[in-house]
Amino acid sequence: MITLPNDSNGTFSANVRLHFYTPEGCIELGQLGPDFAILRDAQSLVASEGEIETIVDEKVTRWKVRITSPITPASRRFNFEPI
Hints:
Helices cover 0% and strands 58% of the residues. The chain is an all-beta fold. The chain has a six-stranded antiparallel beta barrel with strand order 3-4-5-8-7-6.
């Protein structure tokens, strides 16, 4: 659950889930930025393209991305660009 500011009382909660879909399967994301993501759990991935999915209070958004930095167990963070 993520708490975000709200004009009426200062805060509100949203149910947020983040996923990265690759040919290898679905992987949970721990954080998502404008051009980067952080895997929830460390692992290696060979995918060069995939889809990022955000679900905020049951509203699903997906977009295709190209990975622009390696995904290795040493670093859960990777960069991407939309395609």
